[in-house]
Amino acid sequence: MGEKSNDVERTEFALPDSLGPMSQNPDLRPSEIAGDHDVELSLRPKSLEDFIGQKKVRQQLDLVLGGARARKVAPDHVLLAGPPGLGKTTMAMIIAQELGSSLRMTSGPALERAGDLAAMLSNLMEGDVLFIDEIHRMARPAEEMLYMAMEDFRIDVIVGKGPGATSIPIEIAPFTLVGATTRAGMLTGPLRDRFGFTAQMEFYDTEDLTRVVTRAAGILGVSIDSQAASEIAGRSRGTPRIANRLLRRVRDFADVNADGHISVDVARAALLVFDVDEQGLDRLDRAVVDALVKGHGGGPVGVNTLALAVGEEPSTVEEVCEPYLVRAGMITRTPRGRVATVQAWRHCGLVPPDDAPGL
User: Fold this and answer.
1) DSSP character for 185?
2) Active-site annotation holds for 277
3) Predicted confidence (pLDDT) per residue in 43-53, tens digit
4) Residue 89: active-site member
5) Rounded alpha-carbon distances, angstroms, from residue 57 to 49, 200, 250
6) What domains does the chain contain, in order, with CATH numbers?
7) How far apart are CA 108 and CA 61, in angstroms?
């Protein structure tokens, strides 16, 4: 797709006279739009049985929850670790659903003060599940208060300041903490050791992602071929969140250009429009690979130089692009910088040199 010039002829489209205000058009009623939003939310599975993938985690978690139900006690605290988009929040919702308990949700960055956490803990009912997303980003005072809450179901609230300060112990109801983190290494040792069960979420294979896409298409009422579902799954970076997002974009393309049915050709054409290639690389990923291969002869190149070449911040290249490019075998990290592999050279349509990694 080339760049549009300023003198491109503009075409005006007139609305048919039959289209009145939004309230008179049944296709544009807010109630219908809200209903579609509710369908999108229903993509999350509601039970361990419906959860696709993560077989080992599901088996282990089923034992933890089943044992707690048999003893009629709150299960041990659960830590869900893994890259974003693999279903950690969904798993927390399922834990509460399996236990028949209420779910209270917050995030690590939102707990800036110990008082924020104390207010939330004191309002918990017995058996409730407290979910803290990105738990490694909690403020230190709140984290230290959480230690006693997790072990003894008690918190100490400090009233006053200076020599006259008084510690008031407050008993809290037994609860289950579910923490989610994308960086397990950033958790402090005392916090990590207080979790009774740690689940490491893994990237999905194409087969499981195809099932995710097929299930989501059924919920959304989208007609899709099995080959098209596999095509979308293969470009989803092993991540269900990306697979569901690509499915919605392909659905948009199919509604406009293919009467709503998604065939493999429609899926490929749609993903081409949205800049997702056969390997799952998007525009920025390809720009990094091109800069490394064509601009710097395959490296080694520092991340700052790569970021400057593609017009992005170094943190964006390092945190957004590199994890998948390394996992896909496109680049390697060395003490001297980033180096393009054989796969990267071939992805750019070039013959790799003899010293390229991967030969």
Assistant:
1) G
2) no
3) 788 888 888 88
4) yes
5) 12, 7, 31
6) 55-200 (3.40.50.300), 206-273 (1.10.8.60), 283-347 (1.10.10.10)
7) 23
